Amino acid sequence: MKDYYSTLGIPNTATSEAIKDAYRKLSKKFHPDLNNNDNFFEARFKEIQEAYEVLGNDEKRKIYDESRTPDSTQQNSKSTSNTSHSSTIDNKKDNKANNTFFMKATLLNLPNIARQVIFILCLVICIVFKVDPPIALLMGLVIALVIGHPFIHLNKKATTLLLQVSVVCLGFKINFGEAMKAGAEGFLFTVGTIGLTLLAGYFIGKKLKINKNTSTLISNGTAICGGSAIAAIAPIIKANDEEISVSLGTIFILNSIALFLFPWIGLHLINFTDQQFGTWCAIAIHDTSSVVGAASKFSPKALQIATTIKLERALWIIPLSLITAYFQKSKGKIKIPYFIFYFILAILVSTYLPVYFPILNNKLGGNTIFDYAFMFGRKGLVITLFLIGSGLSLKTITQVGWRPVLQGVLLWLLIGCTSLAVIKGIL
User: What is the pTM of this model?
Assistant: First the structure.
């Protein structure tokens, strides 16, 4: 008889909550959709599902426990003590399978060492040479679709950390007084557009008959700050892996388009001031990475304004998460974007510390220490966008479906056109 307790890595005395928690963690880790439909992950995922179907149902679990032999019960105790060792083996298989099979849905099937060399060369180009943010994203997309990311298991942590560090470094070039002014001017605008987007998202999702959780995640991702908002809201509404993947895929596709489209509109189609374009990017583009990337193509001033307003907008994750948790009666942990407070600290340091320590304004090689921090932030953003692009897969694009994309596009058009009209004084 199969040992379902061992499959989920739990003792046979585990509570229903512990079983559910183990299932969620394992299904997220081994879901084939998140691992390019690799056979290893597919088989493991089926085992996990089979185990949960029995242990997650009180009646089925009772029958299963009664039918187990004493030997199998003792074996479970032994296997549970080895859970840590098995988990380590699973992690090694996970990383190896990710690196080996990520290229299955790519155009070229190259040896892993060749993929690593090409990837590192492209990364060095982004670091050493002046590469625009949209070009970095495009380079990453080419890598992902042609040869595949050779270090995909490290990509999520790397992009998250590098984006946060880069944004904080951008704060060293922003004056606190100007930041307060930009934030105050954009506050009511931010509140109004968030409310409008969430309300419209609810009705559009209902009209298109989109899964409720998926619709909620797309609406929150569009209203606040893309993937960060989705990551914060998903555990509160108990979204499953498929709903999260579809939502993130939708937001990523639109973010990629925005990174190319917005600078083109701002530089060639519509006459914007720095304040107008920075505000428009912050309001109408989902993820912070694309906001900063698009605004940096327009002007340094637009970049400062866009970064400040976008991070102010991102703080709305906290109250919206609390409100959602209240209505969902969820006790899940609220994710707070702490790096935003470091961004504020960077602004305060660069604004007021030189007053007491004038030496900080001394130039070395033509730039102050704050200038170098800002340049590091911009370069870090370029690398982040390259990594984001290289983390894409054909599966991410194909699994989304037209309804969620249509909802995302409609919400994007609504927020983009409405905010543009208000900024240009039409409304």
Answer: 0.65
